[in-house]
Each structure stands twice: as C-alpha cells, then as structure tokens.
Amino acid sequence: MPRSLAKCSNVEDLRDLARRRLPGPIFHYIDGAADDELTYRRNTAAYEDYDLVPNILNGVADIDMSVEVMGQRLGLPIFCSPTALQRLFHHQGERAVARAAEKFNTLFGVSSLGTVSLQEIGDLISTPKMFQFYFHKDRALNAAMLDMARAARFDILTLTVDTITGGNRERDLHTGFTTPPRLTPKSMLEFAAKPSWAMNYFLRAKFELSQLKDHVGQGSNIAISVGDYFSTMLDQNMNWDDAGDLRANWDGKFCLKGVMSARDARRAVELGADAIMISNHGGRQLDGARAPFDQLEEILAEVGGEIDVICDGGIRRGTHVLKAMALGATACSGGRMYLYALAAAGQAGVEKALGNLESEIERGMKLMGVTSLDQLTPDMIRRRQV
C-alpha cells in the first residue's frame, strides 16, 4: 500500500495511511461500527448491486459538477458530513476539514461533539456550513448551542435523529476507547508506538468538546465512550414535537439526519424540513439496518421533488455518487471518506480525498456521456439481477 499521501489514489489507500499513523484505539474508533458491522459493510456493498448504463457521442469536454443543496450552490455533489472528535485524529481537526471544504466549495458539517468552536469555524471560512445538533437532556445546553450556531452564521441546522441511545460499538469496548483517551498502561503503549501523534496530542492545545465544555465535563475533562455519552446525555424522549420546536426556533435551513423510512421522510416534509439525510450513522447504531443507498428509491418515490434528499454513507468512489444521483438524490455526503484522510495528513489529506473524488466524478460523468449532473436519470442505472 502507498506510504505517502501523493500516492494515495483512493479512500482505501488513505485508510491504510491513517491506520499506520494513529494509535490502535483511535483508528478503530473511525473504522469500526456496531455489533457484527454488517450494516457498515453493506453501506458500500449496496452500490455494487447497481450498474450504470452510459450514453455516447454527447460532447463532454466541459463538465459542470455543481449541485444546489438547501439553497447553497456547491462545487461538488458530495460534502463532508458532520463527525465528532476530529482533533483526536489530527491536531488540525475541524480547521483542516473546513479549509479543504472551502477549497472545493463544498459543504462542511460540524458536530455538537466537535473539537473546534463554531465561532472559529464561522470566522475561518465563508463557504456553506452545517451544524449537527444533538438533542440533550440539558435544555440550557440546547439553547446555548443554537445561539452559538446563529452567532457563527451557520447556514444549516441538522438534527441527528438516530442516536436515541448509543450503538453497541464492540471495537471501542475491546480497545477501551474513550474521549478524552484514558491513560492506562495499555493506552500508553499504544501512544508510545505512534510518537508523532502523541506529541501533537499531548503538547498542543488541550483537547476539548468546544460546544459542550462549559456545560458538561463528559468528553472534555471526564473520559467517556461515545456510546455511553449518547445513552446518558441525550434525551431519549425526543419526538416529532421537539423536532418541530427546534425547526421553529431556527431561521435558516433545517435538515433531519438519520431518516431511513418513507414514512419518516413524509413526516419530515410535513414538519417543514428543507432536507433529509438518509443515513444509518455509518453503521454505528443499529446493526442490521438497511443501507442508505438501498433505501434511496423508496424514499424518493414518497417525497422526491418535495424536499432535498441526501444519500449519506458508504461512499468510496465517484461512481457511487453518480449512481445515487442517477436514482434522483440531490447530493451525497460521507464521513470516513475524509476522516481517514484527515488522520493521514491533516488538511492536505482532506484535500487529497476530495480531489480524488472530484477527478473520479468528472471522469465518470464524461464516460456516462453527461455534462451536468441533472442529465443523470433513472434510465441510466439498473439493479443487477442477484
């Protein structure tokens, strides 16, 4: 496998570079999922069951890869889905991903469990920004996070709806992963084996969950697993009325992340959401759940044309994006595809990941015989007979 960023041609190459640069527990936090990780694997394998049907002789020298998502014109049809704990993976954290997303004029999502403040990200980039909202039991914290997002001029508020309790992330249980990392004899050996990572983590600015640290100690000063954080800190009574209240208290665009059924997609439209992200949290929550791409046609049949529909998760290739767009998705998003890259090389790594996907999408569009993504239609894709 490639041992330098320049030779990383795809997501798998970047994953391998990240594995060699991160302590084991931290790599496996990015790489792992729930239970037997069936859903995690299916998220990517689902794309393999569909074949593209190209057209020819259409004059494809000039390609337009842009899409409009929630009123924002993006230069790529894939964006950086919000993910937690980024300064654990590389000391630049969200700053690196924000700058890379700005370079490619695509959307960047920041998690409630982010490690750089919303205000800093708001000051850092001018391109579209999404804040992923976790609905906590602490109503004062919920209100404070809304105020932070408004003050930092975030364009989109995205309520994550599939973390009503923590998934059974067995890799994290086996490795002892927590945030912040606990210092044990075993973890110290892991850190010592990756001295570059350890020096950056221990000698740079203290790790924190920037949106949460003034309200809760868990995650910043008190070590906790992400699964336990979801199970103990988030409100398990969250319901559609709470989502409606949140939508009413936000003046910008509003999205629900974690919608997997056509019925819930219809309710999102009725709620007044501007978009839904079809997502199973990267296979980290309910193992055995359907893959987002497998659910795309069913959900589009119910609400297509009424709301932006984003296919989130499992994307490893530009052709995966083209398949989702051919079925009718508004855009795609992903987390691991850029987290491996962040861990591998910071901002340069994320730029490499997005650049690789950009090249693959452009090449794929030309080979499909289209010059804009809206020319992709359902008659250009077939489900293989399995």
Q: How would you describe the overall organization of this protein?
A:
The longest helix is centred in the last third of the chain and has 33 residues, at 336-368. The chain has helices spanning 11-21, 24-31, 38-45, 86-89, 94-103, 118-124, 139-151, 170-175, 185-192, 195-203, 226-233, 240-248, 262-271, 292-303, 318-327, 336-368; strands at 50-52, 67-69, 72-74, 78-83, 108-111, 129-133, 156-160, 253-259, 275-278, 308-312, 331-334, 381-383. Helix 13 (262-271) packs across helix 14 (292-303). The protein is α/β, with parallel strands linked by helices and 386 residues long. The model has no long low-confidence stretch (mean pLDDT 96). The strands form three sheets. Strands 4-5-6-7-8-9-10-11 form an eight-stranded parallel beta barrel, surrounded by six helices. A two-stranded antiparallel sheet has the order 1-12. The protein has a two-stranded antiparallel sheet with strand order 2-3.
* Count of discrete structural domains: 1
Q: Span from first to last CA?
A: 32 Å
Give the helices and strands as they follow along the chain.
Answer: HHHEEEEHHEHEHEHHHHHEHEHEHEHE
Q: What is the CATH domain class?
A: Alpha Beta
Strand order of the largest sheet: 4-5-6-7-8-9-10-11
Global morphology:
globular
How many helix segments? Answer: 16
**Mean pLDDT over all positions:** 96
Radius of gyration: 20 Å
Instruction: Give the low-pLDDT segments.
Output: none
- The CATH topology comes to TIM Barrel
Beta-strand fraction estimate: 5-15%
- What's the name of the CATH homologous superfamily? Aldolase class I
The class by helix and strand makeup works out as alpha/beta
**Which CATH architecture is right?**
Alpha-Beta Barrel
Specify the helix fraction band.
40-55%
Q: What summary fits the major beta sheet?
A: 8 strands, parallel, barrel
